[in-house]
Amino acid sequence: MPDTTPQRLAAITVYGDRAATAVQQVTSLLDSAGVATEETQELLALIQAGAIEGAQGDVLELAERPPEGARAPVVQGWVTAVQAAAAELAHIADRTIAHARPPARSAAPAAPAIRSLPTAVDEVPQEQVELVLAMAEQLFTELTGRTDSCRQTSLEILPVVLTAVAAEDQAGYIAQLEDFAALNRGRLAELYRKYGPGGSFAKLENSGLIGQPESLVICERLDTVPMWLQRVWERELEELTFERFAHLWKFGCDTPRGTQPSKAR
User: Fold this and answer.
1) Range of the domain at 234
2) Which of the residues 3, 21, 23, 69 has an alpha carbon 20 to 30 A from that of 76?
């Protein structure tokens, strides 16, 4: 059977041409509406990064579909290649946003932005960490009946994860976490039942995060800002642990995710 890959790859270029034309049209329309050039660039970058993030999800699904009949070494190579491609897509999306950021502005007042990018935080106050942890522990116990998690581990991981919550969303994050847990109660319960300590599919190589209450916050951030979470995690924590946990949350449960109409980042 002939390989049609070259033809398919060549055909994809038509979307690049159409996208360039669409960008010109949108830029012209927003310029006519009085939107500043740098604000237009930010909006377009957000749209482009979102499309890349969607593509990353499609690529990750390929890890579950290795070539039929392939032996174990081939399957492992396939999974590694898929994960590498997905990781590069995440970096591309991050660079898309970074390149669209305008240079530092002068002290002169600027026109209000239609939509600002989320404000990153370098460090979350200890009080906020404790409040979120208390809620996560409560929800975790309701879902699992467990109260034997390691608090020290929580206090090491949660401050990192919470830096993937925008500054403007920190105050309302506990309510957001409660909403997430309510909407995804079935999927979370399945995750803990199958892969948590004593679960039917629990294995040593599975991430120990499943036995920790901060796993609720990780799941919420994976569904909300996966690329941002991956970036802050890779900077300070063990990458393999994150990958194993993310894989189980994304692909290891049959219960569908809840639809969360949240505007939080």
Assistant:
1) 126-251
2) 3
Closest to 52 in 3D by CA, of 8, 10, 27, 19: 19
Q: Which residue among 82, 100, 118 closes a domain? A: 100
The ranges of the chain with pLDDT < 70 are 1-17, 20, 56, 91, 95, 97-116, 203-207, 259-265
Same-domain check for residues 82 and 133: no
Tokens in use for 237?
A: 């924590």
pTM: 0.58
Instruction: Report d(CA 186, CA 210) in Å as an integer.
Output: 15
What's the pLDDT at 123?
94
DSSP 111-148: PPPSSPPPPP-S---HHHHHHHHHHHHHHHHHHH----
Q: What are phi and psi of 113, to 5 degrees?
A: -80, 145
Looking at residue 169, its pLDDT comes to 95
